[in-house]
Amino acid sequence: MKIRYDRDTCIGMFQCVDEWDTFEKNLDAGKADLAGAEEVEEDIFELEVPEDEEFEAEFAARVCPVDAIELYDDDGEQVV
Fold it and tell me: Taking all residues of the chain, what is their mean pLDDT, rounded to a whole number?
């Protein structure tokens, strides 16, 4: 499972931080950071989700009020 995060779209509600520890508050920027993620395009970050954290990652994606977080299964199909 892969998570894709559009940091530019993030409005800093930090709901994702409450759902998954891999998201961290960046109060200086007013946005969340996705720890360990690779920047694949400007302000677009991707990270492979460990199997034991898929549930939390899905909730983090679902609670984002501006849909800045997308989740893809191993076949590349968008889950959230």
Answer: 98
